[in-house]
Amino acid sequence: MIASPGPGRISTEISTNEIPSVLIHEIIDGKPLYRKGYREVLAKTKKIEDIMGCSSLQFFIIDYILRILYKTVNEDKYIIATNEAGLHLDIRNNLAGDILIFDKDVLTIDKINKHYSNVPPKISIEIDLDIELEEFTETGYITIKTKKLLEFGAEKVIWFLTESKKVMIATAEGEWRTFDWNRDVKIFDGIICNVGEYLTNEGSQFA
User: Fold this and answer.
1) Using one digit for the tens of pLDDT, what is the confidence trace for 175-194?
2) What mean pLDDT, rounded, does the chain reach?
3) CA–CA distance from 112 to each of 95, 108, 150, 151 (Å)?
4) Is the pLDDT of residue 9 over 60?
5) pTM value?
6) Neighbours of 14 (CB within 10 A)
7) For the stretch 113-150, what's the b/e string if a residue is b when 16 or more beta carbons lie within 10 angstroms of its beta carbon?
8) φ and ψ of 60, to 5 deg
9) CA distance 22 to 183
10) Would you say 188 and 124 are in contact if contact means Cβ atoms under 8 Å apart?
11) Which domains does the chain have, with CATH numbers?
């Protein structure tokens, strides 16, 4: 059974012994964090493939940000990773990223292989949470994942949260800021996005 919850955590009654590894989204401090909907898979009301993807709103936002990046990022200097790109921080921590921007001087060609990246991204961009909130509260999960990424060496972590329509930006040396997502967000190198404005212009009900 999962250990009794500590600060910022909530309890769970599901044993981890028989849960397939494919249902693990990330591992933080040695604890598996399961994909949203994994309980339904275990109950056989859903198939594994039913919970593997993101929502249409999530991929709509990801597509918007990626199109900006592909148009503006210097491809000779940076690599843009998506599709739940994996990060291996250490033996107890594996994370996944919605959009990761790597410096090619850090993610050199000899470090590109069939395993998770073991070097930090320059920028990490997350759209919503893709785990069942059992080990952590939403705020607790966002906080610990952001801290892990910054300690690993990321310069900036950006969260877009569709439920609250907020953006959270954290840097290793600066103040963590949260604000409405209808403001310009500086990604890096003068690259800006505005998710709220984009959704409004596209006529989305979620603007």
Assistant:
1) 899 999 999 999 999 999 99
2) 89
3) 17, 7, 21, 22
4) no
5) 0.88
6) 15
7) eeeebeebbbbbbbbbbbbbbbbbeeebbbbbbbebbb
8) -65, -45
9) 37
10) no
11) 56-201 (3.90.1570.10)
Query: Token digits for 168?
Result: 């959270």
DSSP state of 7: T
Q: Is 105 helix (H, G, I), strand (E, B) or coil?
A: coil
Interval 44-55: pLDDT, tens: 888 878 777 778
> Are β-strands 31-34 and 177-180 bridged in parallel, bridged antiparallel, or unpaired?
unpaired
Residue 48 gets which letter from DSSP? G
Whole-angstrom CA distances from 91 to 12, 30, 74, 113, 129 are 24, 8, 33, 18, 23
Helical ranges in the chain per DSSP H: 38-42, 56-72, 138-152, 195-201
Give the C-alpha separation, 172 to 165, whole Å: 24
Q: So what's the pLDDT on residue 178?
A: 97
Least confident of 18-22, 32-36, 48-52, 113-117: 48-52
The span from the CA of 61 to the CA of 7, in Å, is 32
Residue located via tokens 């309890």: 11
Rounded Cα gap, residues 46 and 37, in angstroms: 8
Residue 91 gets which letter from DSSP?
T
Residues contacting residue 206 through CB under 8 Å, at least 6 positions apart: 57, 162, 165, 199
CA dihedral 86, 189, 166, 169 (to 10 degrees): 70
